Amino acid sequence: MRTHDIDALVKALPGHIGVYILDTVTGEEYAHQADDPIEAASVIKLTVMAEAFRQFEEGLQDPAAQVVIRPEDKLPSCGALTYLRDGTAVTLLDLVTLMIILSDNTATNLLIDRLGVENINAMIDGLGLTGTRLNRKLFMPELARQGIKNFVAARDMGLLLHGLMEGRVVSREASAAMLDILRNQRLNGKMPFFLHDKGIACAHKTGEDDGVTHDVGVIYVEHPIILCFLSEQTDVPRAERALQDIAAIAAGIG
């Protein structure tokens, strides 16, 4: 896996960097501060998706149930729902899909309200994710000013992704459906940057904020690779270029 080259790239970056890489065939790992909780940004949405599928599977929520988007639901920036007409109706499964493939923040908060913060954290605990916690919905400036943030850890996200690959998150069918959504990711400027031209598929989720840039996912090469890269208080352009190079090395093309 050329871990020496990966380690050099990681350790050259400023800020707080957490990285976990796993060759899912050989079991070879690379870890750097992989258990450190790091500000989650949109990567926390993976745990919301997992709890949504649990509630779908157990009949607690209907994936086809309609949700009407109201003006007060709309949040800035990422996603599509903010830009559609008031009163647009989408299904719960649509919300999950938009939350992942476009990182839709409106969809995320609607899902958190519907699923329950305590249930999402119970899912996190059940998966054994010790450095990950959902402490609030998105875009809550007063709580943010108080330092109340959501957290993820690189190894945690690797455990979640490996569980999806092995069909252990909720059920085999649910795990496959979640990976399909992740494979349809539209925000592909980070981990897949050098991969797409080589025809290498990637199932992943990004996250970003001020001084924060993340990407976690599965790279589908002969030995599928789980790569989880988290960074905060960093130089974002430098971190993203390093991430692109690390993904290429992990995939065997860099």
Describe this structure in words.
- With 254 residues, the chain is an alpha+beta fold.
- The chain is 39% helix and 19% strand.
- The chain has nine helices and nine strands.
- Strands 2-1-9-8-7 form a five-stranded antiparallel sheet, with helices on both faces. It has a two-stranded antiparallel sheet with strand order 3-6.
- A hairpin with a 4-residue loop joins strand 8 (212-220) and strand 9.
- The model has no long low-confidence stretch (mean pLDDT 97).
SSE map:
Elements: H1 3-11, E1 16-23, E2 29-32, E3 38-39, H2 45-57, E4 66-68, E5 89-91, H3 92-101, H4 105-115, H5 117-126, H6 141-145, E6 151-152, H7 154-165, H8 172-183, E7 201-209, E8 212-220, E9 225-232, H9 236-251
Antiparallel strand pairs: 1-2, 1-9, 3-6, 4-5, 7-8, 8-9
Total helical segments: 9
Helix content: 25-40%
Secondary-structure element order, N to C = HEEEHEEHHHHEHHEEEH
Q: Which residues sit in consecutive blocks of at least 5 with pLDDT less than 50? A: none
Radius of gyration: 17 Å
Mean pLDDT: 97
Please report the distance between the alpha carbons of the first and last residues.
11 Å
